[in-house]
Design brief:
There is one protein chain. The protein is mostly helical. Helices cover 71% and strands 2% of the residues. The chain contains eight helices and two strands, in the order H-H-H-H-E-E-H-H-H-H.
């Protein structure tokens, strides 16, 4: 699935991925960016496992929740990437474990869910940037869904990794803990969905 990012935003994404993965940048570097440009970086912040460092606790509520949805998308994408890589290289019975449906199908589900979460997160970011009337609903939808997707992506990736996925030496446990924190922040998904239901029914 392709999104209508500008060329500058795609360049920003590539730069952010390189710089953040090497420990560069901080929250100050985002201060002058519009929220939609910031959104591109925030997804990469999640992928780089640096969300706690970049999360602005003093920002407006809608920006905070949208930021967490974007970070959750990055976490889900990274968990999927780690799971797919392990499924390609780990062998059982002389074959990569990725050829078995019990491994490949959950990863395929994670891919589909992550792409939907990305769509919702960028819709929310656009609504916040533009001051849209539906911004609160968009943010609630993105936060509730992306938080759940990040948690599920980490759990599936841990299962694909088997024993190593549960150990302190593997990076997945850090992504999983952050995903659980995002899922709970500002109200669990059921509370966000209640807001959406109230909007639709009222």
């Amino acid at each position: 699935m392709q999104f209508a990012f500008t060329e500058d935003q795609e360049l920003l994404r590539r730069e952010a991925r390189d710089v953040l993965s090497n420990g560069g940048w901080g929250r100050d570097e985002l201060a002058e960016l519009g929220f939609l440009d910031r959104a591109v970086v925030l997804e990469e912040v999640g992928r780089a496992d640096r969300g706690e460092e970049f999360f602005d606790t003093s920002g407006p509520e809608l920006e905070r929740l949208a930021s967490l949805a974007l970070e959750a998308v990055g976490i889900a994408a990274k968990a999927l990437e780690l799971g797919v890589e392990h499924a390609k290289t780990r062998e059982q019975f002389g074959r990569p474990i990725g050829v078995y449906q019990a491994v490949s199908h959950p990863l395929a589900d994670t891919f589909v869910e992550t792409e939907l979460a990305r769509s919702l997160a960028y819709w929310a970011a656009w609504c916040v940037e533009e001051g849209e009337e539906q911004a609160a609903v968009a943010v609630a939808a993105a936060k509730s869904y992306a938080g759940d997707v990040a948690v599920a992506a980490c759990e599936r990736s841990i299962q694909v990794h088997g024993g190593i996925g549960f150990t302190w030496e593997h990076v997945l446990h850090r992504y999983y803990k952050r995903a659980l924190w995002i899922q709970a922040f500002g109200g669990y998904p059921r509370e966000q969905r209640a807001r959406i239901a109230a909007f639709l029914l009222d």
